Every structure is written in C-alpha cells, then in structure tokens.
C-alpha cells in the first residue's frame, strides 16, 4: 500500500497550459513537445514521466471533459495521447492539453471525470492504454503527418508550424504507438483498471 505525504505540494513540470506548444488534433506531437520540455528543464523527474496513448482495436474511445465535448457527452476519438507523471511524493498527475479539467489533473480526478468506467460501455468502447517512458518516446516516435491528409493530399487540420518529428530509423511509425497489440511498438499496454492500479 502506498502512503503519500499530504504536506508535499505538487509543482508543475511543464509551462502553464496557455504557454505549451499546442496544435489541435495533433495530440501525439503536443505530448512529444511536453516530454521534450521536461527533459530540457526538469531532467530530475524525466524518469517518472510517460506518454500514454489511449485507443482500442476498433479505434473508438470515449473521453469526457474534452474541449470538443458538448455538455456532458464524451468525445469519441480514434486515439488520444496524454502525459502521466508518476509523482513519487504523492498522487500521479495527468497532463491533457485537450481537457477542460485542471492542468495538470490528479489521476484519481481524471479517472473519475474524464475516463469514468468501462463497466457501462459496450465492449467496442473499452479503452486500452499504451504507457511509454518519456525518453523512449522522444527517441523513437516519428510522424510525417500523412494520417492528417485526405486522399488528394489536403490537410484535414492545419499541421504544426515546426518540422515533422523523425528519427534516423523512421519518418512515420505512429501506428505502432496507436496499436494496442502488446507485441508491437514500445511501452506496456494496460486496460483501464490496470492503468489506474499501476499508476495511482
């Protein structure tokens, strides 16, 4: 059983939300940029930081309390990416640049308000979580943004202004991160209960 010292006050490890690098509909890059910032400015805690891809086999994942939500209805994404900080002195925190919840948000609150439960959802909506250490994500993620172009090459949504993120090995491996097949890609894959249990 974990015991947390409630006298410790949590300190933001990223810029305030309004100063973070952000492009709508490019959550995987927004979180990559947060990891990049943390490695440069808060190296002492980078080993406790994770990029978390949320998806499933059907690419149908409901998340509540999103900026794109209407009332108390969830947004059903094909995938979403958040940042997890496993704070050693207390509860873990979630950094989600697309939520209307606090930034950052305690994991217990994010679970209760944004993730809720799979119990009352059809199985096709059950969420899975690929949890990747931040430094692994920074070293291996690559995207040429081709998934954001239509069949004639037009952007579905305007891309970030900075160059595409690539590695010496790849220019596009986003699918390996979105996939919830534990045999491919990086990190570990959990269901919702496992994710909250191991990171709470």
Task: Please describe the topology of this protein.
Elements: H1 27-41, E1 49-55, E2 61-63, E3 75-77, E4 80-85, E5 93-95, E6 105-106, H2 107-115, E7 128-133, H3 134-140, H4 174-178, E8 188-191, H5 192-199
Antiparallel strand pairs: 1-4, 1-7, 2-3, 4-5, 5-6, 7-8
Helix pairs in contact: 1-3
Structural class: alpha+beta
- Counted beta strands: 8
Order of helices and strands: HEEEEEEHEHHEH
Which stretches of 5+ consecutive residues score pLDDT under 50? none
- Tally the helices: 5
* Silhouette: globular
Q: Mean of residue pLDDT?
A: 95
Strand residue percentage: 15-25%
Distance between the terminal alpha carbons, to the nearest Å?
11 Å
| Largest sheet properties | 6 strands, antiparallel
Strand order of the largest sheet: 6-5-4-1-7-8
Oligomer: single chain
> Gyration radius, to the nearest Å?
16 Å
- Range of helix content: 10-25%
Explain what the structure shows.
By secondary structure, this protein is an alpha+beta fold. Helices cover 22% and strands 17% of the residues. It has helices at residues 27-41, 107-115, 134-140, 174-178, 192-199, and strands at residues 49-55, 61-63, 75-77, 80-85, 93-95, 105-106, 128-133, 188-191. A 6-stranded antiparallel sheet has the order 6-5-4-1-7-8. Strands 2-3 form a two-stranded antiparallel ribbon. The model has no long low-confidence stretch (mean pLDDT 95).
């Amino acid at each position: 059983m974990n015991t947390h010292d409630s006298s410790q006050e949590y300190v933001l490890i990223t810029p305030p939300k309004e100063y973070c690098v952000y492009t709508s509909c490019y959550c995987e890059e927004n979180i990559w940029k947060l990891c990049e910032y943390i490695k440069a400015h808060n190296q002492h805690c980078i080993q406790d930081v994770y990029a978390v891809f949320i998806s499933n086999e059907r690419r149908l994942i409901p998340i509540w309390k999103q900026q794109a939500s209407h009332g108390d209805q969830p947004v059903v994404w094909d995938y979403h990416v958040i940042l997890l900080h496993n704070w050693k002195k207390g509860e873990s925190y979630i950094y989600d640049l697309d939520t209307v919840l606090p930034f950052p948000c305690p994991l217990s609150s994010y679970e209760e308000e944004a993730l809720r439960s799979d119990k009352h959802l059809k199985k096709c909506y059950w969420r899975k979580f690929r949890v990747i250490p931040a430094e692994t994500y920074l070293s291996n993620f690559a995207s040429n943004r081709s998934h954001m172009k239509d069949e004639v090459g037009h952007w579905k949504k305007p891309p970030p202004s900075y160059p595409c993120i690539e590695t010496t090995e790849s220019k596009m491996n986003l699918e390996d991160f979105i996939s919830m097949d534990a045999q491919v890609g990086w990190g570990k894959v959990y269901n919702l209960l496992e994710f909250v249990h191991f990171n709470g």
